[in-house]
Amino acid sequence: MAKALSLTERLTSREEVHPSELDHALETRARMHRAGAPYSPVYPTTGRLFPGTYYLNGIDLKWTRTYSRVPLDAKMEPHETSLAPPIVLRLAKRDEVSCPVTGKLEVLSSAQEGHSDLHTEAKKRVACVITGISAGLPRTDGKVFESDNLDRLVRGDQCIAPISGSIKMAMLDKNIVQVKKLPGGKIQRVPFKTEKDIASIAAVMGTVNLTAAYGVPPGLAETMDIAAQVAVAAGMEALKSAGLVSGKSNSPEEWKLPERYRDTTGVVYASSFPAMDAAVGEVMKYLQSKTVAAADSARLIAALRSRLIRASHDREISDDDEAAFARLLSRAKETEEGPLGEEITQLSKPYQFDRKFLFRVLVLGNAQLAQLAGCRGPNTQTNAACAGTTQAIAMAQDMLISGRAERLVVIAGDNASGDTLMPWLGSGFRALGAATACEAVEDAACPFDRRRSGMILGSGAIGMVLETETSCQERLKITSSNPFSMKARLLATQYSNSAYHGAALDRKHIASEMKRFLADIELIHGIGKAEIATHGVYFSHETSTHASDASSCAGNEIAALREAFGDELLSKLLILNTKGFTGHPMGVSFEDVCAVEVLLRQTVPPVPNYKEKDAYLGELKISKGGPYACRYALRFAAGFGSQVAFALYATAQYE
After folding, report:
1. How many Å apart are CA 471 and CA 127, to the nearest integer?
2. Which among 258, 234, 203 is positioned nearest to 583, based on CA atoms?
3. Where are the beta strands (DSSP E) in 125-186?
4. Residues 342 and 443 in one domain
5. Is the Cβ–Cβ distance between 460 and 136 less than 8 Å?
6. What is the 3-state secondary structure (H, E, C) of 434-450?
7. What are the recorded GO MF terms, alphabetically (predicted)?
8. What share of the chain is helix, strand, coil (3-state, %, to 5)?
9. Would you list the DSSP string of 340-364?
10. % of residues, the chain, pLDDT over 90
């Protein structure tokens, strides 16, 4: 049988290949099994297959698969050729060498060139760098975008404040009922009846005027809701930070990309509640026109009097109540005839449909930034809930690695704590038991502290320009009136889904994903977890949810860190948090922008209000703020729907 199969000859013809080539072969095989129509594989190379092997030719539009077979008398190609398909070999000749996207995608080097050491290749040429950043912070006393925003972010200035009484009343009107699970499987329904039961604090955004700041035509600005407006502004500021636009005035031309960069610049937009501000606001405006605004004050008072009479046992009201109604009616007439009369008249007008409604709910923030700045490259929007920004950054890195663009503008914007959405989202998070009811900021905003009792809603926007290192270096050679610098490097990203629960975190899966991410970093870049722990900082997802051993954000996150790093290394890793002073801005990750700024300044923000150690979390190196030497910034983000994302940043000087 051995002779018939030529077994000895086959065994001696075996060759040694780099493990990465086999990884690529397995990934390609998996892609073939998941392939849709039409599809034409670029791998395997037929000359490297054994005689008699069947392989897929392609899948046509009718989903018909066609196969071919290597002739039985075919001769295999010499071992000197690479197993990698032609597309990978072409990418290998480019100046950039990709970092792993999900841990396995790599640009392979040709065996003839003698570059079989992926560690050396990746460390010599890092694909992705950050050249521009911006942050639109929540603040009620000024504009969303102020010149000192990044300073405030690194200092850890408090952005959280009490919310207005009208917003509190709007939440109480929602008749919130929290469902609690008791020991034994019983369920308790807890209605919220007083202001002490609902959210009392939030991080609320100030104002933004696209026309005054960036020369955006008023008609175009009106097609965006607040979240899209601040995201577009963040993109503009990031482009200015990257030296791609001058931004010296509000002339639209000052915010346009030079023609030579337009085709190679794309946009990725992240938001947890895209267009919700516009949709909910318009629906509420319509309902108001059909209810309260449709009736004059006299009719409302008469209706209230009739309701009170129906509610009384003897169908009568007292003389005091009658006198009170008379005074109320008199006051209403005075108001209608006074300064507020015109406003009341406006409110009582019939509802008129906003002809720009469709544009405002189509999630066009990414396209609107492209239109304003001239970005003609890839353009998309993603929603990974609270992991949105980090996932968008990873998607942008994918696009850079695949050669779809030379630079990507990542933007994110959400307005969860605004007047329109706060009554709904604040009520929703309170109903889940996820948001705090504490009235004092110092008692509520305390990440990793034993006193933490729930998240605090926030709003804001960020912008980040990611660029291939080659593109950055070419731009640096050009004399420009818009100076810029390489701010940091993006070494690796990873995003996945735990397929677990709509709101809860899967502790085991997060730990396994973190270990996979760290293992891939060590494989590709030669950076071990000991080096990250000793010379890095960790930007946590921690939202200050209640201090429960089983389900708090901090509990799950720290458990994953201990599993991945071990107790000894974790004690060396400095832990940072921004949500303690920005609130939770939903899909906006101030952490990623802060990571770049920390690496640039070698200064870290403090974790606010950390006073009481949580014994369940164990010993942690919590940041107290101030100067701190670091080479790396590790970021973890999680979002509703079991979204998980990681990123590793390094200083611009990293080699």
Report:
1. 10
2. 203
3. 128-136, 161-162, 177-181
4. no
5. yes
6. CECCCCCHHHHCCCCEC
7. 3-oxoacyl-[acyl-carrier-protein] synthase activity; hydroxymethylglutaryl-CoA synthase activity
8. 40, 20, 40
9. THHHHHHHTSPP---TTHHHHHS--
10. 62
Diameter over CA atoms, the chain: 115
Provide the residue range defining the domain that includes 266. 130-180+196-275+362-651
46, 76 contact by CB (below 8 A)? no
Does residue 86 carry a pLDDT above 90?
A: no
Locate tokens 């701190």: which residue?
Answer: 628
In this structure, the answer to whether residues 146 and 229 fall within a common structural domain is: yes
pTM above 0.85, yes or no: no
- Per-residue pLDDT reduced to its tens digit, 128-146: 999 999 999 998 788 999 9
pLDDT at 67 over 80: yes
Tokens of 448: 């990793």
- The reply to whether 551 and 625 lie within a common domain is yes
| Tokens coding 293 | 């605004």
Residues 375 and 415 in one domain: yes
Asked if 42 contacts 27 with a C-beta cutoff of 8 angstroms, the reply is: no
Start-end of H helices in 403-541: 422-432, 441-444, 469-477, 507-525, 529-535
Distance of CA 321 to the CA centre of its chain: 55
Q: Is 196 exposed, middle or buried (0-12, 13-18, 19+ CB in 10 A)?
A: exposed
Closest-CA residue to 482 (of 255, 244, 251): 244
**Both 299 and 422 in a single domain?**
no
174 vs 166: CA distance, rounded Å: 13
Buried b (16+ CB within 10 A) or exposed e, 511-540: bbbbebbbebbbbbbebebebbbebbbbbb
- Answer yes or no: do 440 and 332 share one domain: no
